[in-house]
Amino acid sequence: MKRKIIILLVICFGVISCKKETKVISIPEPNNRDSIKTDNTTNSDGLTSLYKTKNKDNTEEIRITTSKASEYNKYLLAEDKNFILASKYLKEGKEFKLVKQDTLISNEYNYTSIGKESFEKVTIKDQEYILLSVHETYQGSAITDEMVTFIMLNTNNLNTYNLVYGGETTVHKGEAIVGEFIENKLLNSNPEIKKVLYDFANKSKLVFHAAKDPNHYSNYMKKWETDNNSINHMANGYSGIPDIIYSTYYKDDLFNFTGDYDESQSIENDNFKIVSYFRANIIAFDKNKQLYFPVYTEACVTGCDKKIRFISENSIEIKYLESSQGETSIINLNKIIFKN
């Protein structure tokens, strides 16, 4: 993952957001904890309550609230502007009075989902913290990146420590985002808190755990991009297919790893079976060698779906279905150069 991609990601998902596109991608799946319609009861301040906890003496209360949640899942925010607040209340008589409030997340034109593993409590040196995760995906088609912020909230002063994990649209089976954690100097100076946050983050289903070996099959996409000096993740598709393609053979089943596909996306002859994944990679299986290899890697949210067909025993035609120009390319599989 290139550092410049991550920097762009942070800018686009921060308080200063990128310009909204007119085309909208699918809303993330709701968490299982809210599979039926919720009434989204609001507090007296008009905010939706996500979480509430009191101390043992019942003299302090921490509330985590949001602006406006989804009709069917209060942990999913899909407004043009979203925010999540942390508030501290102290008991005065029979009532709780607000004494401090801070913003945990603020964004524009992002689908924002609070992870179901959120609101876990931990204690470090007698201080209690609340852990939560927030997944943000851009609503338009201009950004293919996603971001998860793992937050550690100090219940005493509402100060937070954030660990950000950024990456790109999933290009393999499962929900995990292929990306990396962004270096945080504040965490580096607080090793105990850093360890807890990383342990919490690494349990998330959204964090992809790649093998350290760059030649491991789980890193096939990154290796293909490195070997071909090409990262084909343009937001609206069609990055261009290189004249000379470098690839790698794998014993492991790349079809199974990459994910499910419809039979209409695959072609087959006596020598090869090839799958063109929806708006993603083209993977092949060499029947003679009994080995898998990536033909071409690409990921986008619109514009790069590809139709493939054999035009000879060892050559395929690739046509971009969503392109008004109907761009096509020919790849001779025998001319692919294989690296170790």
Explain what this protein looks like in three dimensions.
It comes from Flavobacterium procerum. This is Lipoprotein. The protein has 340 residues and is mainly β. The chain folds into 2 domains: 3-202, no CATH class; 227-338, no CATH class. The chain is built from 5 helices and 20 strands. Strands 3, 6, 7, 8, 9, 10 and 11 form a 7-stranded antiparallel β-sheet that branches. A hairpin with a 5-residue loop joins strand 1 and strand 2 (60-66). The longest helix is centred in the middle third of the chain and has 12 residues, at 191-202. The chain is elongated and about 85 Å long.
What is the makeup of the main sheet? 7 strands, antiparallel
Structural Rg: 23 Å
Secondary structure class reads mainly beta
Q: How many structural domains in the coordinates?
A: 2
Q: What is the ordering of alpha helices and beta strands?
A: HEEEEEEEEEEEHHHEHEEEEEEEE
* Count of helical stretches: 5
Mean pLDDT: 85
Head-to-tail CA distance between termini:
21 Å
**How many strand elements?**
20
Q: Which regions are unreliable across 5 or more consecutive residues at pLDDT < 50?
A: 1-39
The residue fraction in helices comes out at 10-25%
**Shape call:** elongated
User: How much strand content do the residues show?
Assistant: 35-45%
Protein name: Lipoprotein
Organism: Flavobacterium procerum
